[in-house]
Amino acid sequence: MAKRLGIMGGTFDPIHNGHLVAASEAASRYNLEKVIFVPTANSVFKHNKIVATQEHRYLMCVVATAANPSFIVSRADIDRGGTTYTIDTLQDIKKEYPEYELFFITGADAVRDIESWNEYEKLFSLAKFVAVTRPGYSIDKKLTEKYGVDQLQVPAMAISSTDCRERAKSNKPIWYLVPDGVVQYINKHQVY
Ligand code: NAP
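Above: the input record for the complex with NAP. Below: its predicted structure, written as tokens.
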């Protein structure tokens, strides 16, 4: 059987424990050898909404995953630059890991609009798509039936980056919502 690689695509502004639980759940469900976190450069639908710089978001991912030998972080989207399109992410990762079967893991809210993504029909031949949902949310049946998108319910995704940012901005605690090192990174660099 081909070796399997998970790709966590996201803005990670900031990365939080929900993302880490989702990656761990996906690794267990699909028998993934490694999971690569790929922070976006400039996310398509949110040019004015990203708060932290690419380098802060990348470094927070590095800090958050440092203790897990199966989790790695890629600069592929950031170094390519410009607007991040998943077709490019998948092609770049495939070049680096040609022998791996790819699983693209991201939020269900993002995947809902997948038919508007660049070259979307090609995406499904490059990777299996896994849509992570918060509790009580189901993905559209069409995504499963037409494109084979799987749903992964992750209760810890009740944590959200938006909430973490707002808490950090108003000096409310974010301990235990994000890894300790990320709390310290955010405080040290006054990221939010
Ligand atoms: P987003 O709008 O920031 O996130 C949508 C929802 O999904 C949020 O609830 C978010 O929660 C959650 N989420 C994001 N990444 C996740 C992950 N890896 N695991 C679990 N939940 C996740 O989405 P985005 O960050 O812009 O885009 C997500 C990915 O889809 C990126 O890799 C992006 O490049 C790709 N994408 C590609 C295209 C395209 O190719 N045209 C278009 C849109 C998105 P949090 O806010 O708590 O993270």
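Notes for the reader.
Strands lie at 3-10, 34-39, 42-43, 71-73, 83-84, 100-107, 127-133, 150-153.
The radius of gyration is 16 Å.
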